Amino acid sequence: MMDTATPMPALAPADDAFADRLRGLIDPRGLRPADARYLEEPRGTWVGVGYWVAAPANVGEVAAVLSAAHEAGVGVVPYGGGTGLVGGQTQPEGAPPLILSLERMTAIRSLDPVENVAVVEAGVILEDLHRAAEAQNRLFPLTLASKGSARIGGLLGTNAGGVNVLRYGNARDLVLGLEAVLPDGRIWNGLTRLRKDNTGYDLRNLLVGSEGTLGVITAAALKLSPIPAGQGVALAVVPNPRAALDLLSLTRDRVGEAVSSFELIAGEGLRFLEEKLPQIRRPFAEAPEWMVLIDLGLPAGLDPEAALAGILEEAFEKELVSDALMAQSLAQATEFWEVREQIPEANRLIGSVSSHDISLPLSNLPGFIDRAGAILRDMGPFRINCFGHLGDGNLHYNVFPPKGGDLQEWRAHTKAVKRTVHDLVHEMEGSVSAEHGIGRLKVEDLERYGDPVKLEVMRALKQMFDPKGIMNPGTMLRR
Amino acid sequence: MMDTATPMPALAPADDAFADRLRGLIDPRGLRPADARYLEEPRGTWVGVGYWVAAPANVGEVAAVLSAAHEAGVGVVPYGGGTGLVGGQTQPEGAPPLILSLERMTAIRSLDPVENVAVVEAGVILEDLHRAAEAQNRLFPLTLASKGSARIGGLLGTNAGGVNVLRYGNARDLVLGLEAVLPDGRIWNGLTRLRKDNTGYDLRNLLVGSEGTLGVITAAALKLSPIPAGQGVALAVVPNPRAALDLLSLTRDRVGEAVSSFELIAGEGLRFLEEKLPQIRRPFAEAPEWMVLIDLGLPAGLDPEAALAGILEEAFEKELVSDALMAQSLAQATEFWEVREQIPEANRLIGSVSSHDISLPLSNLPGFIDRAGAILRDMGPFRINCFGHLGDGNLHYNVFPPKGGDLQEWRAHTKAVKRTVHDLVHEMEGSVSAEHGIGRLKVEDLERYGDPVKLEVMRALKQMFDPKGIMNPGTMLRR
């Protein structure tokens, strides 16, 4: 296998002449100049190039566009909600690509509460699917901060995570079937609604998480869940991350899979909130060094308050928890969540030297926090805000200048800090991209830390699916 | 992509000369003549060819064996517990392959109850992993009839299902990371214990379910779960499969994900038990036409009996259930399960005209049972025993001669019956292999019913991973 040395041919621009070719192939309302919103990305690291956006109305039009791009050797950047955090939705240089937006494919084709399945097109906005499911007394559990603009195609293409992964899994765990178009325009109809289907290789999971580099997902059959009968939310002050993990174990021993979220919050994050977003209500008078947010979704017959009280009482006795608050109302639960959810915004306002979306085996996590902190303290007086999805071993480990420090000056350390953090993550058997993906930001990291055989296989797969290298050029793998 | 017309080169036999080459590469105790047990399969449809079994002691030896086989163009049949039901563990004709047994790689490398992860070698027997997890108060939820001999490598290679899929997913849903050897002997070290890891294409799911045709899984990091605090088991008589589905919905509305199993049992199955295994205790004096077995695993604080009683009471009122028994003890729960678990043995003793491992979208399932029954009744006085994992939409739909009919004579109808059932499954958006896989038995079915683009991609993947076609030749894809 794997004659991977074949260089990919140069790409042609998606220029006016190419747009003219598309005019005969798709509804002309789906063809428009690429305005700024398609070329920007949330962190402002890259600005994309591109003259034209194609927004096909159906899978046949997607196939026609890809077929034309394949024939002409034109690059294609698949575009969902544009909310990705690693630059996979932009191509900042080279021949301007065609931006292929799924925004006009927004049908929820079916939503069956007995099957617990929704069949949706790739352009459906996550929050719209949440609402449609709720209207049928069902839950589509994938949720994250960008739910108001992120689209299903992008969420699947990047295997999105979020706050409910602990209970319901990543995006890939919610997919039963896919419809997708391959780079040469062939349509794969794999839109099965089956829970079990052992008929051949798993193409579904190959496309999920491939970040638009192997094809374009156009529709998906997704798993829905029952809505838990009762919710219980608490904030608990813990002495350290090790105790937080023990509290997670204790909670799971008591309520099993009913732990929907288990989020770690550092004192630094609370101080950032006080500094930049003082309107966010402080849960505790004095900011604790570590706390966790516990969100339980319980079946009928279990009282969430009683369950939480029982868990916290045992945790107090075992000295895993020193203080705790249980939400007494939905409003208070929302307030607790607000603390967690506004931390990224406070981080943005402070401005980081380097941000890291990392994961570790759960049992290595407390050791990592200790060791990384010690190493960085030796490098300088950085502030570290380490928070995130503890139950998944996924930390957002972000490093900031000292209070009053000049951000631009401290950014001279960005490269060294990132390398230090990522090297330690790798040494401790973790991942340098837990949920955000590789995009453009982490291509070098993948080359540095990825298993060499896996990288060879990835390049061979890319060559096989997309020999002209038109799909999302430069994302995931160097061209 | 996809110059799939390249014919694969002829294979060389794994003869004594090849065995001599292996002697220098692996511990000689791992090399032995292929006795009958490696050449038989449970249904007796095929008898394999093969002179030699290699049983490597570690991943390095597996790599050495595959590298030698790749170089020599010798076929390799990966061998786990030999319990597969579609012949994927045997090669009945052609140049005798090397049988590569994982039986000496039986280490449970680690089992961490805080991480909820076990790292195990491919030769570990499922039941041994069950016991090791239980000793740490954890559950490895994959379970099926052959648990006493099936090995982890084979269970993952075939993406095994079983009775707990409804709650915990298929084998693939339980895998965090893999170690595997590719057909040319390269070792992929992807043995991560991470819950989230978005660093590149998902090779893990490509190998899981590939039935040994793309490489050999040598170890896996597997998810464990908390053991539910309380179990409740009931048998409920339902008027028809539609009511059974409504009962499933009702049960999930009440207890959420706590439904571990939801199995359909047909009256025909009970009559087969009476005829062939009269020692199995009848739960109801008169065999009902349809019943379901419900198994709940509940968190602490919920009384299983009370939960089941509440569900059944509401089901009585709604006329979904006409009679029910709740297990009053663990012994009685085991007795109820015994009814379900002995049905395949009763089937075997009766002897089927044709057996089908099918799945359907849940909402098409009652319609399928009606339509298939009507069509088959027109074909002849067959007895139909239709049972299985209703919650997953997975039926074992088996067709038998009329009482007193001569099996050999009625087997003249096997082909027509199979075609009829599978055509209807396909028409109703189902799968002709829900959990058993393709193996040798369903190669033609895959060609007939598989999406043509998927088949093209599968052939290209096979060509890319295994250009000499040495891996499990003739399984999944025609050589």
Describe the structure.
2 copies of one chain form a homodimer. With 479 residues, the first copy, chain A, is α+β, with helices and mostly antiparallel strands. Chain A folds into 3 domains: 16-103, Uridine Diphospho-n-acetylenolpyruvylglucosamine Reductase, domain 2; 108-226, Uridine Diphospho-n-acetylenolpyruvylglucosamine Reductase, domain 3; 230-427, Alpha-Beta Plaits. Helix content of chain A is 34%, strand content 20%. In chain A, the strands form 5 sheets. Chain A has a 5-stranded antiparallel sheet with strand order 5-6-10-8-9. A 4-stranded mixed sheet of chain A has the order 1-2-4-3, covered by helices on one side. Chain A has a 4-stranded antiparallel sheet with strand order 13-14-12-15, sandwiched between helices. The mean pLDDT of chain A is 96. At the A-B interface, strand 9, helix 6, strand 11, helix 7 and helix 9 of A face strand 9, helix 6, strand 11, helix 7 and helix 9 of B.
| Oligomerization | homodimer
Query: How many separate helices of chain A?
Result: 15
Percent range for helical residues of chain A? Answer: 25-40%
Overall 3D geometry of chain A?
globular
Count of extended strands of chain A: 18
Mean pLDDT level of chain A:
96
**Strand adjacency order, main sheet of chain A:** 5-6-10-8-9
CA radius of gyration of chain A: 23 Å
Strand portion of chain A, in percent? 15-25%
Would you identify the regions of chain A where 5 or more consecutive residues have pLDDT less than 50? none
CATH architecture of the largest domain in chain A: 2-Layer Sandwich
Cofactor (chains A, B): FAD
GO molecular function, one term (chains A, B): FAD binding
Keywords (chains A, B): FAD, Flavoprotein
InterPro entries (chains A, B): FAD-bd_oxidored_4_C, FAD-bd_PCMH, FAD-bd_PCMH-like_sf, FAD-bd_PCMH_sub1, FAD-bd_PCMH_sub2, FAD-linked_Oxase-like_C, FAD-oxidored/transferase_4, Oxid_FAD_bind_N
